[in-house]
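fyi for ur records
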Amino acid sequence: MPHAPAPPTSLLPPALLQELARRRLVARFARAQGGAGERPSRARGPGVEFADHRPYQPGDDIRALDAQVTARLGVPVVREYVVMQQLPVLIVLDASASMGVGQPQKFVLARQLAAALAFVALSGGDLVQVVAFGEGVHSLGRMQGVNRATELLGWLGRLRPGGPVTLQGAQGHASARAPKGALVILIGDFLGERDPQAIQAVQARGQEVLALQVLSPDELDPARLGRGLTRLEDAEGAAGSVTVNLDAATLSAYRQALSGWNDALRQTVTRHQGRFFQLRSDQRAGDILRREFFRQGVIQ
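which gave:
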């Protein structure tokens, strides 16, 4: 997909990044796995946070023996500690040509949200991979640690929307490589014919879905385009152009169709405890993070 040749400007204000650095992503059932992260797991082993005592078993490290408790009970007892692990986070960003429409452009907000969520995950020690699809499917690879944030934000900042690759084509490439129990964050307009099937495929792999739908004000209310004969262009070129009469009946039918489509999308996501947010491209990323994600527990 196209990249800007010049170095990108900051996607997010420094003050917002400082605020996000103290936050963490919240998963409902996605689970921490392996690695050296900051999330307590059910596993017990070497660590710094005391969990419990248990009877000594052959093969245990004698350095884990609790001398005081052993002396008091008369049987060898070892200390157990909480093992801190990392959450696998996969962010799939729609960078196809359809995201380049709208005023402001849908891709601007979508990219900022991808950057913010990736930054929060990196700050929390999670294992992060970002995949963008448009003119092909592109990935920066798995990353961990806030020291990788500059590289990731720079990569996102150079992306430009273009091309016809669909969410279904991208998620087959990406989510199949993410482990079961990963948190998969999908960001796009979800107006593709096969997008619901793509979301279901992610959930079928036992991965938790957070779906962020970004639509332009004109897509939500085409009455803003005016009335009468209007020529509509397919941003990805597959359907060409069509001329429609934007009268009251057409606008009403469009609103009903869009509402039904989005209701079905929401049900598809929430059926397996996923979360679905519909966002407008003229909203500020910082406002969305504070008013939506902080308050509703996506980020804490």
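The domain at 14-31+86-294 is CATH 3.40.50.410 (Rossmann fold). thats all i got for now
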